[in-house]
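Example (one chain per record):
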Amino acid sequence: MSATEIDFYQLLEVERTADDKTLKSAYRKLAMKYHPDKNPGCKDSEARFKAISVAYDCLKDPQKRAAYDRYGHAAFQNGGPGGGPGGDFGDIGDIFESIFGQAFGGGARQQARRGADLRYDMEITLEDAFHGKKTEITIEVSQGCEPCHGSGAEPGTGARRCAMCGGHGKVRAQQGFFMVERTCPTCHGRGEVIEKPCRACGGEGRVDKPQQLEIDIPPGVDSGTRIRLSGKGEAGPFGAPPGDLYIFLHVKRHDVFEREGTTVLTRVPITFTTAALGGSIEIPGVDGERLSLDIPAGIQSGKQLRKRGAGMPVLQGRGRGDLVIEISVETPTRLTARQKEILRELQETETGDECPGSKGFFERIKDAWTGITD
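Predicted structure:
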């Protein structure tokens, strides 16, 4: 169907039986949505705003609506059943054409479609995500045919205008008041017919072959980060522009570190003597450097310590996140006779005040047992 025959009721998103109040409400809702002030610089919204205004101006007038309901758009065409000049409807084709483009008419031949976008999944290490990385990949992708330069025609030959559509890419047929327009079945919308297809690509204008690409991975990327390589996707048919290639990154699981955004987490076991007395230990950083960590005396398992600025870099920004260290106090399992003797001596000196958590727990248990026996 051509641009000038888009149904006014469909445009306003109402039924043909809609009353004046419903029409007005629908128009206000759509006018607010597509008003140029709310969509600055958007030509599609501006054109749609004009189109719904034209539709509403027709349907809010009882006489115009009656003529439209009976004859459709023909009521407002020169010499149509409605009589008289088109008036406000003279430019409706241009308005609708700017909104709906080639799908609803337009005369120009169909543009060759752009090549498809492609996806490539890449696995990297946490270290790669930290430092960034330049690497190369090789993918099999359709590219423009060199012998015919993407035209699809055998070198030295060309394409001729399609006789079926006269080079427009579309054919039309009259059905009552409507002019139905379809893609030309002979040239498939190109407006041209290749008489002698290129033997290298079979007339497609593109062939599949390996392509080597350099990928620049910036520091701070995470799983799900997408890198776009413009124009490195599948070549379009008959010399049309290529699509894009999207690299989706997946960071491998690390043996030592876990990651939450720019924060890096790790679990560090310490001896129970270090936990009791405190001290200083060295731990690895995600950047490979050694970090000194002060352990406060009396620290408990599960306690988290934080190293500011020792986490992952901010992607395309400045600074780094934090490194969070969860302490795990390890109970010794292999003791010498002398070590056991020392621990027994310690045990004999214990009063219960050394471990307030344990003392408080057993006091609560004792109170619970006393309540039961009473």
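Caption: Residues 16 and 180 are 22 Å apart (CA to CA).
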